[in-house]
Structures are given as C-alpha cells and as structure tokens.
C-alpha cells in the first residue's frame, strides 16, 4: 500500500510539473492542453524559443506591450510581445 501511495504522489507531481506558466518555455507551438496552464497556449517566438502565452480573441485581452496575434499550428491567438 505504501508503494502505491508513493507512486501516485510522484505521478501527480510529474503531471503538475508538465504545465508551464505564462512566460515559461515550451516545446511545440499550437499545443494548448499539453504544455501550458489553462488559458495559455505554446506560442512560437523569434529566436526559436517557444513560450506559453495567454490566449486572446482581441487586442483588449492583452497588455499594452503585447499584440493579439495568431499562433502557428493552430487557429488560436495569443498575447505576444510587440
């Protein structure tokens, strides 16, 4: 029984660690549920490093220093640095 509890605890910790916060690096642009927290999407960025960015539908969803633009590999938009 103790081994099962330890296994489940480790699996839970690994599962939670796989979701990146907004601004965290991620692997594949266009992935919403696999790599980033809810409400964010893995977004392509200049320099080849992708990052989790807030999902948006229009410019007012983003900060003034961000633009609501399309994400490669999806039909979703995210708040991207200008």
Provide an overview of this structure.
With 82 residues, the protein is of the alpha+beta class. It has one domain. 20% of the residues lie in helices and 28% in strands. It contains one helix and five strands, in the order αβββββ. It has one helix at 2-17; strands at residues 25-26, 40-43, 50-56, 66-70, 77-81. Strands 1, 2, 3, 4 and 5 form a five-stranded antiparallel β-sheet that branches. It is globular, with a radius of gyration of 15 Å. The termini are far apart. Mean pLDDT is 81; it is low at 1-16.
Question: What attributes does this structure have?
Answer:
five-stranded antiparallel sheet, 5 strands, 20% helix
Short description:
The chain has one helix spanning 2-17; strands spanning 25-26, 40-43, 50-56, 66-70, 77-81. It is of the alpha+beta class.
Write the layout of secondary structure elements.
Elements: H1 2-17, E1 25-26, E2 40-43, E3 50-56, E4 66-70, E5 77-81
Antiparallel strand pairs: 1-3, 2-3, 3-5, 4-5
Figure out the total of helices: 1
Number of domains: 1
The description of the largest β-sheet is: 5 strands, antiparallel
Percent of residues in helices comes to 10-25%
- CA-to-CA gap between the ends? 53 Å
Shape from CA axes?
A: globular
E-strand count: 5
Unreliable residue runs: 1-16
> What's the average pLDDT?
81
> What is the radius of gyration computed over CA atoms, rounded to a whole number of angstroms?
15 Å
- Coarse structural class: alpha+beta
Element pattern in H and E: HEEEEE
Strand content: 25-35%
